[in-house]
Amino acid sequence: MNSNARAAASALLLATILLLAGWLAGRTGADILPAESYAANPIDFVTRTEAMIAASQVGRTAEGMPVVRPPPGDVYVRVRRWEFSPALELAPGQTYRLHLLSEDVVHSAAIGDAEVLLEPNTVKVVTLKAPATGRVRIQCGEYCGLGHTKMIGSIEAVP
Ligand code: CUA
For 3-21, how does the pLDDT look when each residue is reduced to its tens digit (9 = 90+)? Predict the structure, then answer.
């Protein structure tokens, strides 16, 4: 690499850092942060999700999906065409770690102002502090077939 190319590369890196810093500073509330990812055994993941549902279910949505109110901490969400399951009720101001795993194709989870790409077999963990009231947007941001535009989950802060 000659010095001009090096200078250009340095400028590009600096611009990227500044953009990232600006994005972080501009985040509203900064209460949602993508954290780590890990390779998943899908069967273990489903087992953990089912255990959470069995322990914390409070009802069902109109579509028949379980609604859970898990304790603060780790929460497991199955992602597949075209749903995020289960629906979540969270305690205002409490912090949760959402573990998301796609069971079929590539999806994404746009949660509040953060978005994580969800590839099969890799769990993404997103830290979320529940707002005082209302819903947190969660929807798929990656085209995944006919039902993509309706792939919207449910996260609600409930005192
Ligand atoms: Cu899932 Cu688009």
Answer: 666 665 555 554 544 444 4
> What token pair was written down for 117?
């790409």
Domain 31-157 is classified in which CATH homologous superfamily?
Answer: Cupredoxins -  blue copper proteins (2.60.40.420)
Distance 82 CA to ligand 1 centre (A): 6
Strand order in the sheet with 66-68: 57-60, 66-68, 87-90, 155-157, 134-136
Residue 140 CB–ligand 1 contact under 6 Å: yes
Query: Does the beta carbon of 138 lie inside 6 Å of ligand 1?
Result: no
User: Could you state, in order of their start, the residue ranges of all structural domains in the chain?
Assistant: 1-28, 31-157
pTM for this model (two decimals): 0.80
- The verdict on the CB of residue 115 being under 6 Å from ligand 1 is no
pLDDT in tens, 30-60: 387 877 899 988 999 999 999 999 999 999 9
- Ligand 1 within 6 A of 155 CB? no
Sheet holding 138-139, edge to edge: 114-118, 107-111, 138-139
**Å from CA of 37 to ligand 1 middle:** 19
